[in-house]
Write a sequence for this structure.
């Protein structure tokens, strides 16, 4: 659309609202298509949350209690970029997850797995000037849910990002490489393009591992980027 | 060039990460969008997010983004200088056990639209919940505003659906705005 600041193709990787295999989408997905509107000042602006809003201790989910949480300590790091490959600096990432046994610290989660008194499962971090972020946590476990008989979620960490505008807002889940549950998970598979699904899977990163302390995974997060300029289109 | 990371649902446990006060960390976000002292007409917006069977969602998150009383956004893309920048313009409210959300804020001013147009005062809304694989976007407009006739976004909406975008007056400074995910009164959602 004329005057676009952000790429509209940038949401093509998203799942549809209605994905019947994910049962709870059936009553919660709008049944009419969204109305396409111009990107006005209301859309291309958005809240700014970054370094000024979080403390460095919030990026370590393993040090929020008197003792150490159980499980496999890991470092997750990467960059937040836009679709033009430009870093997104000073933007907030909110993090939440279950514990190593696959249990969330939440009254709704009644999975018969233990809570860990030393693990809440929530953290926050802001990207630096080059879009880099890093947090320390415990590798989450897989857990059952009631979507269908013998349904299990692959291990994942929830991530929520703002980016520079209301249009770049993204909530996603980061998965771990080689999870045998991928093939059976309707949420992972709600993303129609198999290549796009792989962009939700982090990579093992030996180089970022802390010897004698923690394994590391790398995960770049790509937000909606700029609309192609007429010059770009000429060269496409 | 890198390609975009797909959206996934916030799931049923969003309170752990997105309303940190619930788990003991400092609350960064709140339904109180405008603290005392922010210039403007103080308003309260309340409503529910309602599913296809008419049941309110007790595990949804509603986020709002708005301009100040003079229609200015606290953002570098709005090149007009803000008067005072205590107003950030963002609110977040998880729905409660009855499925209700609310925001305490100020009424925004009109905002410039495409070309020479002007957008009627409105609040931009995002909705996240279990069962939503991606966030939904809508807008809250205010009842009885003659500026609706010239609003370039309302103009994109079929006349018979516009009422879903207009809050209802419910007393002095109080407005209700229900978000219906399905049904004959399904709220208009936008894609920009």
């Amino acid at each position: 659309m004329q005057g676009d600041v952000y790429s509209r193709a940038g949401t093509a990787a998203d799942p549809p609202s209605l994905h019947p295999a994910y049962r709870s989408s059936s009553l919660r997905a709008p049944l009419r298509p969204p109305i396409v509107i111009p990107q006005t000042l209301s859309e291309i602006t958005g809240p700014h949350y970054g370094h000024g809003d979080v403390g460095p201790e919030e990026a370590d989910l393993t040090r929020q209690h008197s003792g150490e949480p159980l499980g496999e300590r890991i470092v997750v790091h990467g960059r937040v970029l836009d679709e033009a490959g430009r870093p997104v600096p000073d933007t907030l990432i909110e993090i939440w997850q279950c514990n190593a046994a696959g249990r969330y610290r939440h009254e709704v989660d009644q999975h018969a797995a233990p809570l860990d008194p030393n693990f809440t499962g929530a953290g926050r971090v802001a990207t630096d000037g080059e879009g880099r972020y890093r947090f320390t946590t415990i590798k989450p476990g897989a857990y059952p849910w009631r979507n269908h008989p013998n349904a299990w979620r692959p291990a994942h960490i929830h991530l929520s990002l703002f980016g520079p505008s209301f249009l770049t807002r993204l909530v996603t889940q980061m998965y771990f490489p080689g999870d045998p549950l991928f093939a059976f998970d309707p949420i992972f598979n709600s993303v129609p393009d198999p290549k796009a699904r792989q962009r939700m899977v982090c990579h093992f990163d030996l180089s970022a591992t802390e010897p004698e302390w923690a394994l590391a995974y790398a995960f770049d997060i790509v937000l909606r980027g700029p609309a192609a300029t007429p010059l770009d289109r000429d060269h496409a | 060039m890198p390609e975009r990371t797909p959206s996934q649902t916030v799931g049923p446990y969003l309170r752990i990460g997105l309303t940190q006060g619930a788990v003991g960390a400092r609350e960064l976000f709140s339904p109180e969008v405008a603290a005392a002292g922010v210039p403007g007409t103080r308003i309260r917006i309340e409503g529910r997010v309602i599913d296809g069977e008419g049941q309110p969602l007790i595990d949804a998150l509603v986020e709002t983004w708005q301009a100040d009383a003079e229609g200015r956004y606290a953002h570098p893309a709005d090149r007009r200088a803000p008067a005072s920048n205590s107003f950030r313009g963002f609110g977040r409210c998880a729905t409660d056990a009855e499925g209700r959300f609310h925001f305490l804020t100020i009424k925004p001013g009109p905002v410039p639209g495409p070309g020479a147009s002007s957008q009627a005062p409105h609040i931009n809304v995002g909705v996240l919940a279990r069962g939503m694989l991606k966030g939904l976007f809508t807008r809250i407009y205010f009842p009885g505003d003659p500026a609706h006739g010239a609003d370039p976004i309302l103009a994109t909406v079929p006349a018979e659906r516009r009422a879903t975008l207009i809050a209802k007056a419910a007393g002095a400074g109080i407005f209700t705005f229900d978000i219906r995910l399905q049904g004959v009164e399904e709220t208009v959602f936008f894609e920009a």
